[in-house]
Design brief:
Length: about 160
């Protein structure tokens, strides 16, 4: 079968519970978690650090090499709260708690997969930074988090 487009809304994202390592909680999207999805946009980003390798022999043409690669993913959507208990959605709550942790404690696992993937892409060590929350008169409250990989990516089979 030839390669084909897939729906961004069908991608999956999970955070590792720092209090229970090995326990993963799924961020709610249109497909996963419930019919009330919180995440409706994601952006996977790459960042590179380069070094200048230009010499006199370069004859005025810049030369450089990639020396470091970084990755991050931003999840955006709606803030989900239980109206009767006030409890925040489980994955959003874990992300907010994790974002408040510092130093070595700021790292926990994150993983994601596209439709049809048989393996998760795993960031064993990642840190979380919250984005803005808000909205206008006729809006639902927004929510976002940026997850940044620390170290290499690995993979594990989707169970």
């Amino acid at each position: 079968m030839p390669a084909q487009k897939y729906n961004a809304r069908d991608c999956r994202f999970q955070i590792e519970d720092f209090l229970n390592p090995g326990t993963w909680t799924e961020f709610r999207t249109a497909l996963n978690g419930s019919t009330e999805g919180g995440i409706n946009t994601f952006t996977l980003s790459y960042e590179y650090e380069t070094t200048d390798t230009t010499t006199f022999g370069s004859n005025g043409r810049a030369e450089s090499q990639n020396m470091q690669e970084g990755m991050s993913i931003t999840l955006e959507g709606f803030r989900l709260k239980d109206p009767s208990t006030g409890a925040l959605d489980a994955a959003q709550s874990l992300a907010e708690l994790q974002a408040a942790r510092l130093g070595n404690d700021s790292l926990t696992g994150f993983r994601f997969a596209a439709p049809g993937d048989t393996d998760w892409t795993v960031w064993a060590d990642a840190h979380f930074q919250l984005g803005d929350t808000g909205g206008g008169n006729n809006d639902k409250a927004s929510w976002s988090v940026t997850v940044t990989r620390s170290g290499p990516s690995t993979s594990v089979a989707i169970a």
